[in-house]
Write a sequence for this structure.
C-alpha cells in the first residue's frame, strides 16, 4: 500500500516516513508543495498525508485541486494550526481527518487506518475475492477457505495489488513500485521471494508466471 507524504520539515518528514515504512507502507516523501500534483497524477496512492504550510503550493491548494478533480483519495492533514476554525476549514476543504502537531506516531497510524477503512467503503470493495481467497484491505486480513492466512506486510501488498486487478499481468517493476517508496533500496530478488511465499501459503497454482511479462492470478 503506497502513501504520499508532503511535509517540508526534514526531521519530521524522515521520522514519519520511517515510522510508516515499519507499518508496512511504501512511502514517497516530498518536501515542496509544487511537486505534489505531478506525483498524485502519475502514481497510484491509497492515502495522502499532507502538511498545510508548505513552500510552493500550499497544502490547502493541493487538497482543493485534488477534490476539484473529484478524486476520493483519503487525505490526512497535519499542521501546527490548532484553532477550531482552522480544523473546520481543513475538513471543509475536503480532508478526511486533521492532526495537530506535535502528535504521537501511533495516533498517526491509527488515523491513517481509519481513513483507509472509510475510503474502502466508497472506492473499493470491502472484500476482494478470487477463488477461495478473500482479502480485507482495511483489516489487512487474508483467508483461504475461511481460514486466516498470516502474511507479512509486503506479501499482503503484493497479493492486494494482484487481487485489485485480477485479470491483469503485473511486471516485476510494477510490483516493486507498490512495495517501495522513492529512495528505498530494492532487493534484487524480493518479488520472486514474495511470490514464492504466497504460493506456499495460498497454493502453488494461485499465482501464475507469464513468461517475459510478469505475474497474475490463475483463473478462479
Amino acid at each position: 500500500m503506497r502513501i504520499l507524504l508532503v511535509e517540508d520539515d526534514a526531521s519530521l518528514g524522515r521520522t514519519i516516513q520511517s515510522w510508516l515504512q515499519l507499518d508496512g507502507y511504501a512511502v514517497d516523501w516530498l518536501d515542496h508543495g509544487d511537486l505534489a500534483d505531478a506525483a498524485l497524477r502519475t502514481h497510484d496512492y491509497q492515502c495522502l498525508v499532507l502538511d498545510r504550510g508548505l513552500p510552493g503550493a500550499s497544502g490547502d491548494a493541493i487538497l482543493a485541486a485534488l477534490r476539484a478533480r473529484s478524486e476520493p483519495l483519503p487525505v490526512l492533514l497535519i499542521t501546527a494550526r490548532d484553532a477550531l476554525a482552522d480544523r473546520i476549514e481543513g475538513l471543509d476543504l475536503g480532508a478526511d481527518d486533521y492532526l495537530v502537531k506535535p502528535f504521537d506516531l501511533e495516533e498517526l497510524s491509527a488515523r491513517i487506518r481509519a481513513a483507509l477503512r472509510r475510503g474502502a467503503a466508497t472506492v473499493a470493495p470491502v472484500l476482494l475475492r478470487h477463488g477461495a481467497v478473500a482479502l480485507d484491505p482495511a483489516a489487512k486480513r487474508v483467508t483461504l477457505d475461511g481460514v486466516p492466512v498470516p502474511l507479512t506486510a509486503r506479501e499482503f501488498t503484493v497479493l492486494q495489488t494482484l487481487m485489485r486487478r485480477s485479470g491483469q499481468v503485473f511486471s516485476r517493476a510494477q510490483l516493486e513500485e507498490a512495495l517501495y517508496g522513492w529512495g528505498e533500496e530494492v532487493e534484487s530478488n524480493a518479488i520472486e521471494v514474495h511470490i514464492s511465499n504466497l504460493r506456499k501459503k495460498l497454493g502453488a497454482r494461485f499465482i501464475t508466471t507469464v513468461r517475459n511479462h510478469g505475474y497474475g492470478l490463475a483463473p478462479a
